[in-house]
Amino acid sequence: MNDRTRSSGRDADAADEGLPAQTPAVPTLGDVIALRLGRREMLMGSLAVTAIGAAGGLLSWVAPAAGAAASRFKFREIAHGVDETHHVAPGHDARILIRWGDPVVSGAPPFDPMNQSAAAQSQQFGYNNDYIGYLGLPFGSANTARGVLCVNHEYTSEEVMFPSGDFYGRGDLDSATRERVDVEMAAHGTSVLEVQRDETGWRVVGDGDLNRRITALATEFELSGPAAGDARVRTLADPSGLRVIGTINNCAGGMTPWGTYLSCEENFHTYFWGTLAEDHPEHANYKRYGLGKPGYAWGRFHDRFDINKEPNEANRFGWIVEIDPLDPASTPRKRTALGRFKHEGAETIVNTDGRVVIYSGDDQRFEYLYRFVSDGIFDAADRAANMDLLDRGTLSVARFLDDGRIEWLPLVHGENGLTAENGFASQADVLIETRRAADVLGATPMDRPEDVEADPASGKVFVLLTNNSKREPEQTDAANPRAENRFGHIIEIAPAGGNHAATGGTWEILVLCGDPAKPEVGARWNAATSENGWFASPDNCAVDPQGRLWVATDQGSSWAKTGTADGVWGLETEGELRGTGKMFFRVPIGAEMCGPQFTADGRTLFVAVQHPATDGTEDYPGFERKSTFEDPATRWPDFKDDMPPRPSVVVITKNDGGMVGE
Ligand code: FEO
Ligand code: CA
Ligand code: CA
Ligand code: CA
Fold first, then answer.
1. How far is the CA of 363 from the centre of ligand 1 (A)?
2. Which of 425, 437, 495 is nearest to 281 (CA)?
3. 72-131, pLDDT tens digit by residue?
4. How many A from CA of 241 to the centre of ligand 4?
5. Which of 294, 412, 422, 620 has the most CB atoms in a 10 Å sphere around its CB?
6. How far apart (Å, rounded) are the C-alpha atoms in residues 447 and 379?
7. Which of 388, 344, 376, 403 is nearest to 538 (CA)?
8. Does residue 265's CB lie within 6 angstroms of at least one atom of ligand 1?
9. Distance from Cα 508 to the centre of ligand 3, integer Å
10. Which protein residue's CA is at the shortest distance from atom 1 of ligand 1?
11. Which pLDDT score, from 0 to 100, does residue 576 have?
């Protein structure tokens, strides 16, 4: 990054101590009103008089005496900072549950970083754990001490994964070997693990019958829904257009009420080699999704990842995948009814009328927010009856109006310009080119939509928008109000009448993120009333059983601008403290925070520490270079000279056995 304004020291011992309260920058009245009341009311003008009349009260709310309002998060906040290890709020225990390379499938070989093989990796925990889902066992039991954990493996970080002699970087695809490529492909996908808590804590059940690895290398998927079997998804290897090998770039996801696991294919474009001629029918489609800059060498050895050999293969990725974790022999399905884009997550909520609603962001600058509503009704008494609910329904895209309303625009073939004249001959075309269909409907380009999660109690929907440094001043709107939005924001949607299938609703901004003390780097007042207060780049989230919102961040390499590694924050959503955050957990240098997932009793929080030692290590004081396998910025979590850094799932519990965050 160009703007290296600040770095934190390596102060591991002090990191768990609270920092002194910062003196916040004084916000403008406009900032305060916009944050407290939401941009919606300001723009509607209906509350202008009220807002001005209440200004004194608002300002006194912004900077109350410490402790003036009771936080719903009783834990003592940890300090911002960056060092080689993780930190959790006092009174909590954070321990490693499973690391990259640990055995998943019964009989898997022990991890040997100097002798990796695709065969071993296919039985071991994959790389870059992201989404985590938990399902109590047996199904329907709400068991919070024994369950199945579903974990995504988003991508691989070769620079710290393989010895340098064997390393090929993202810019050196030519020196890749077949075996190295196959290890990478086996390290992608997902893991399904049985886990159990006993008197010594949580552990993976090593011989669990449900333990399974799903990989990009070998697992067969079935395409289902309106685009299945379409001519545009048929290949030489699969003339039926129904069978796909592998899933890639599985970012976030969701668990369904019928006990399946949704895993989202996000940045699928970077895996494909080749370019199509400009007059090729898929040229514009692939350009819209960013193909043409391969980051992996897979296409050298696997024809399906070379679009010159298999021009339709890239239409078979970018979907939401549904996996039955209770049947290790089941064939996972790519649910085409939910659209093809760079899916971040897929959180499900059962609507008041019993239909299933899934919100999903398309994580790229200026892309859109989507919602799927099933035709069918969820049947809580018959698991099997729900297994194809996601094949039939309506996918819509969001338009955020400046007056605070939201409209859901249905992506239905034959309607509103989604016609043959515009290149959509069928619903399959609409779904394969979801982005272009959404363009036609006039959806609102957002600042990178990441996780979207509904609070089942309030019905509110939280939309996390990571950042968008490319937004120009003339491109701002009420829902994306900051040009050069480096630190992101969170929008809260209230569906009309609490109906998640309604065509409309209202929205307001919950928080604009960033450090209020550093407006020069684009931040705004974040209503900092806690010791550290602010955070940046919200990515994943979870709503705990008490209805409290927890936010995980992904700043990429820009942590040096904020002075803190990524982590989990408790974020107030109601009352006087609404919009304020407290840092609960912090990742080691170079890592990203993913996958917060609570058990239903709120006593266990699983988190995923992704790509330790990679991002922004050039800015890490005392290190100041890129990490390599031999010389990483941290060897978390093993801290052994012969072990590279390893992405890991961490399990957090309260020392007194109480609710996490109390
Ligand atoms: Fe894979 Fe959008 O984070
Ligand atoms: Ca993410
Ligand atoms: Ca989530
Ligand atoms: Ca991320």
1. 6
2. 425
3. 999 999 999 999 999 999 999 999 999 999 999 999 999 999 999 999 999 999 999 999
4. 31
5. 620
6. 36
7. 344
8. no
9. 20
10. 251
11. 85
Amino acid, res. 180: R
pTM beyond cutoff 0.85: yes
C-beta 230 within 6 A of ligand 1: no
SS3 content of the chain, % helix, strand, coil (to 5): 20, 30, 55
The full DSSP string for 287-330 is HHTTTT---SSHHHH-GGGBTTT-TTGGGGSS-EEEE-TT-TTP
Instruction: From the CA of 342, give the closest atom in ligand 1.
Output: 2
Q: Is the CB of 251 under 6 A from ligand 1?
A: yes
Cα–Cα distance between 399 and 309 in angstroms, integer?
Answer: 38
- What is the Å distance from ligand 1's center to 380 Cα? 31
Residue 649 has pLDDT above 70, yes or no: yes
Q: With contact defined as beta carbons under 8 Å apart, do 347 and 381 qualify?
A: no
pLDDT digits over 179-205, tens only? 999 999 999 999 999 999 999 999 999
Minimum-distance ligand 1 atom for the alpha carbon of 448: 2
Asked if the model's pLDDT at residue 346 lies above 70, the reply is: yes
Ligand 1 neighbourhood includes 306 CB (under 6 angstroms)? no
Asked whether 154 lines ligand 1 (CB < 6 A), one says yes
Provide the pLDDT for residue 24: 29
Residue 135 in tokens:
């399902």
Please report the pLDDT score of residue 68 as a whole number: 60
